[in-house]
Amino acid sequence: MTAAPAAALEARGLAKRFGATEALRGLSFAVAPGELYGLVGPDGAGKTTALRALAGLLALDAGEARVLGKDPRRGGAEVREALGLMPQQYSLYRDLTVAENLRFFSRLYVLPRRTFEERAARLLAITRLDRFTGRRADALSGGMYKKLALACALLHEPRVLLLDEPTNGVDPVSRRELWALLHQFVEGGMTVLVSTPYMDEAERCSRVGLVHAGRLLLEGAPRALLDGLEEEAYEVAGGDREAVEAALAARPEVRAASPAGSRLRIDVAPGGAGPVQAALAPLGAGLRRVTPAFEDLFLSRLRREGAA
Ligand SMILES: Nc1ncnc2c1ncn2[C@@H]1O[C@H](COP(=O)(O)OP(=O)(O)OP(=O)(O)O)[C@@H](O)[C@H]1O
């Protein structure tokens, strides 16, 4: 008997170059069975390339990908059956209905009819697509389209699910519904790796890896990561924007600044708010302390790495 692998998914020093672009530069992380792990990072960070490597769709230049302890390019049927993938551009048949798309994918997975019917009914119910089975895929909203893609990717009941930016281009209500679905699957014992460019989604994962330029910047449980943030976050309101930005740029305590609607959000070195406030007061601007978010954490770590 072989022992079960400790990690459901493992990326060990993944490296991949496309021409002059180094998409992955030694990316490593592991996802435990039953975990909801978020790979969070901006566009171009290497998230899609990492997911493709784990799905066995990519020849790596260096490093190893493992799914349930197996090389996904050599694991054959065992890996194929265990793994579900929802790529960013999931190719549903746009001129087929919701029900026809599900049936098409069930044939790909060679599911017996009874099994298909039971699973499709359950997936349609939990995605709340059961009222739209006759609607063509090209007439679905962005959120409904993603949910149908998710249902198709789940038809063969994978133990491990890879989702590439499932909430990209989806309205806030559908985003929340998609995350609720992922939590349900994880409660049912599935391992889920999800990539997202939205920093605010990091808090919905049991563990996150912040990715930038093909490497992991930071990894951990969301709350613990935020608690470990050294900088204090503030919002700056009032004053002439240009003058305020110039004053902030001159303050060494200000470690990062980014627009937040009509305001500015800044990360300040511990205890550094006093001098910043003093510099802003003559300009008619002030500071308000806010709860740090993942964006603050990301910017702080980028700056420390000398990448921002
Ligand atoms: N097939 C390819 N050919 C050339 N360059 C590629 C290819 N795939 C990815 N890249 C490049 O590798 C880098 C990482 O891309 P990747 O798609 O993995 O990032 P990402 O984090 O998923 O972001 P996005 O949301 O923009 O896809 C980018 O600079 C991208 O342009």
UniProtKB/TrEMBL annotation:
CDD domains: ABC_DR_subfamily_A. It holds the Pfam family ABC_tran. The keyword ATP-binding applies. GO terms for molecular function: ATP binding; ATP hydrolysis activity. Signal peptide: none annotated. Residues 9-238 form the ABC transporter domain. Transmembrane segments: none annotated. The keyword Nucleotide-binding applies. Keywords: ATP-binding, Nucleotide-binding. It comes from the Bacteria. PANTHER family: ABC TRANSPORTER G FAMILY MEMBER 20 ISOFORM X1 (PTHR43038:SF3), ATP-BINDING CASSETTE, SUB-FAMILY H, MEMBER 1 (PTHR43038). This is ABC transporter ATP-binding protein. It comes from Anaeromyxobacter diazotrophicus.
